[in-house]
Amino acid sequence: MRVISSVLTVSLIVMVLVGGTAFAIFNQFESPGPLGAPRTVVIPKGEGRIAIAERLEKEGVITNRWTFVGGYLLQGFLGSRKTTELRAGEYEIKEHASMREVIDTLAEGKSILYKTTLPEGLTSEQIVERLKAEPNLSGEITSIPAEGTLLPDTYYFSKGASRHEILDRMRDGMEKTLAELWEQRDPDLPVRSPEELVTFASIVEKETGRQDERDRVAAVFYNRLRKGMRLQSDPTIIYGIVGGQGVLGRSITRTDIDTKSPYNTYQINGLPPGPICNPGKSTIEAALHPAKTSDLYFVADGTGGHTFSETLKDHNSAVQKWRQVEKQAKAKQGAADAADPDTGTVPIPQGPDSAPKSPVVTKGQKAAKTQTPATSANGADDGSAAPVSSANSTDVPLPVRKPKKQ
C-alpha cells in the first residue's frame, strides 16, 4: 500500500508539474507578443523549428524561443487542429502577435505574395529573360522551354520561389488550357492537332493586339489556308531571322521578304514548323472559334484597328484610305519637327531593297498590326511590289495584285 501510495503521489506531483508547465507555456503562448509595430520576417528554406524560433526571438517577434517550440509541440498534442510544418517564405507579422498567431501564419504559409506578369506574345527566350530579372525569384534557368509551351498570365509567388517553379506552372497551364479548349473547337478547322493550333494562334497573337479582332484575323488566315494561299505574315519573317529574341530592331527589307526560311510565310506554303511566340488563352479561343467571314485581306484603318476585305478590289480601296491616313500623319509629324527640330524622328531608309518598318513587339504590348497578309504577290516575278506596312511606318502599302495560290 505504501508503494502504491508513493507511486500515486509521485504521479500526482508529475501531473501537477506538467499541467502547470503546460498552463504557463500556453498562457505565454496566447499572450500578446513584443512587437510594437508590424514587421516583415523572412524564413529561409531548410530551417528547422528551433532555428526559426531563434530567428524570431532575435528579431523581437517572440520573447522566448523555447516557449515557442514547446507551444508548437503542445498545440500538436493537445490542440484541436493538427500542427503542420513551419514553412519558408516572407511573412508580415502583425503588431503584438501572439506566438500562436505567429505559428498559424508560418504553418498556413500566409506569406507575402509577389507577382510577375508575363504577357501574351512573348517568346520563351523573352519569358526566361524576364524571370531571370525578377529579384524575388531564385535559382538558375539552364535551358529555354520549347516555343509555344508556356501560358502567358500573371503568376503569384512567395519570396525566394524557384524560377523553374514558375516555368513549370506555365507549362502546366498551357497543357490544361489546350486539353480543355481543343475538345470544344469548331468543326472542320484546317489544323489537325493541338500543336498546329498553337502555331496558328501564335501568328494571330503577333498580328493584332486587339482582342475584338483576333477571331476575324484567325478567319482571314483560315480562309487563305483553305484556298491554298500563303499566309504572308510579317511576324513569321521576323522570327525566321531572330528566332526567340523576338525583336528585329530594323525595317523588314525586300531581301528579308524574298529570303526563304522555314518560317517565312511569304515563301512557304501553309504553317511554319512551329510557334513564333507563346499565345494567350483568349487568342487560342479565337483560333478555335474564328469569325464566320469570307475575308482574305486586312489592313490598318488608322484607328488602331483594321479594315477587312473579301476581295482584292475592296482591299486595294482600303489600302488607298490607309495611304491618306499615313500622308496626314507624315504631314503632322513634319510640322512638329519644323516647330521643334530636336524632337525630329530618324527617317527610315528608302530604296528598292527597303520596306517600311514592321511593328516590333516588346514587353508584351503588341502594336496594332497593319500588314495585310496579302500585300505582296508571293514573290511573283512580274515586278509587283511587296510592301510591308505598319502603323508606325513612314511609308504606305501599295495596291497589290492577286496572290498566287500554293
UniProtKB/TrEMBL annotation:
It catalyses: a peptidoglycan chain = a peptidoglycan chain with N-acetyl-1,6-anhydromuramyl-[peptide] at the reducing end + a peptidoglycan chain with N-acetylglucosamine at the non-reducing end. HAMAP family: MltG. The record marks E207 as: Important for catalytic activity. Residues 331-342 have a biased composition (Low complexity). It is an enzyme of class 4 (lyase). Residues 368-378 have a biased composition (Polar residues). Residues 327-406 are annotated as: Disordered. It comes from Hyphomicrobium facile. One of its GO terms (biological process) is cell wall organization. This is Endolytic murein transglycosylase.
